Amino acid sequence: MNFQVDAFGTLVIAVIVLFIGRFLVHRIKFLRNYNIPEPVVGGLIAAILAFLLFKFFGISAKFSSEIQTILMLMFFTSIGLSASFVKLKEGGSALFIFLLCVIGFVLVQNAVGISLAKMLGLDPLIGLIVGSITLTGGHGTAGAWGTVLEQEHGIHGAIVLGMASATFGLIIGGVAGGPVAKFLIKRYKLETVDNDPNDDTPAHDNSAAFEYRRKTRLITADNAISTLGMFALCIFVANQMTEFSKGQWFELPTFVWALGTGVIVRNVLEHVFKVNIFDRAIDVFGNTSLSLYLAMALLSLQLWLLADLAGPLVIILVAQTAVLALYTSFVTFKVMGGNYDAAVLAAGHCGFGMGATPTAIANIQAVTDRYGPSHKAFLIIPLCGAFFIDIINAFVIQTLIKFF
């Protein structure tokens, strides 16, 4: 029996899931100590409950994909609208260095996947599927490349395998970041005084996107209306560009167009027309869409897809998890300076190295909520994880497929 849940029902359930996650994180010391994001906790509880209902009673629910897509586009648009060239310049050499760490990991991830696939007697392209196609790319990339691999390279079941692998990655990406950061902070004695979760003083104007998510943002109705107008413009243009670019060499996912349009709109208004951009309103809408989108994404997970992963593929995915933890702990952390900011960046790298950009930001929010702010992480992670990583990943995938 399958139930259809409309947009409003999906929104209500997502809010409940978020409150459940918040309640459990505040009450269970283990979750709090290991910095597991609230949307991940609540979403996993809901996904497990959905699995049990499907397994024992044959009951499943299909949630509104439209509202989830809108929230995803709002989240990526908020990153674009927050990407002032001034802030991009502030990221400086650290952004470039972190980008090199990301490139290195994408190559390592694919090397592990392809090598283990060969050792286990599988097609090397299957190793690529359980490599950066799904683990760095997420569900969207899994679906797009799964179709290509099925139709053009004869990899039967590539889409199902990709979705199952991406589901595994999204869960691990959200769970691994906090413990990795805790390990690094404790081992190298980087711990600061814990933040007060009830501190509701206003955030300062120079804070980066998604930073200080629990702080009060002082906005007015006029600010909210003009900001919503910018969001709507960016998403409208993104939808039009998605249709226009279909089948063209410059075809890109809608969320990339939304992010890119946000960058252009922000900087044209700010630097050409000298319009005062209200970052506080962008922050509020961005954080709201992030939390709700992540809750919905986990709520919609069909955990029974993981049953489609055969033994050899589980071996590859477990190995990828170990490689992710080692790489972020001993490469990303060391290269980025071996300090507190580097530990937070390592947690973020776990998020999109084996999950998605929303998971990465949720990871660093969970860590900084407990251990203190990291302005550098909130500058670098959104820019690198949402934009550069997709371009890098697409180039690496296309190059590797040519060899196999």
Provide structural commentary.
By secondary structure, the protein is mostly helical. It has one domain (65-403). It is 75% helix and 1% strand. It has 15 helices and 2 strands. The protein has helices at 7-27, 29-33, 38-57, 65-82, 85-119, 124-133, 138-153, 158-187, 221-244, 254-271, 279-299, 311-335, 340-353, 357-371, 375-403, and strands at residues 2-4, 60-62. It has a two-stranded parallel ribbon with strand order 1-2. Helix 3 packs parallel to helix 11 (279-299) and helix 8 (158-187) packs antiparallel against helix 13. The longest helix is centred in the first third of the chain and has 35 residues, at 85-119. It is globular and about 60 Å long. The mean pLDDT is 88.
Topology:
Blueprint: E1 2-4, H1 7-27, H2 29-33, H3 38-57, E2 60-62, H4 65-82, H5 85-119, H6 124-133, H7 138-153, H8 158-187, H9 221-244, H10 254-271, H11 279-299, H12 311-335, H13 340-353, H14 357-371, H15 375-403
Parallel strand pairs: 1-2
Helix pairs in contact: 1-3, 1-4, 1-11, 3-11, 4-9, 4-10, 4-11, 5-6, 5-12, 5-15, 6-8, 6-15, 7-8, 8-12, 8-13, 8-14, 9-10, 12-13, 13-14, 13-15, 14-15
Function: Catalyzes the sodium-dependent transport of glutamate.
InterPro entries: GltS (IPR004445)
Protein name: Sodium/glutamate symporter
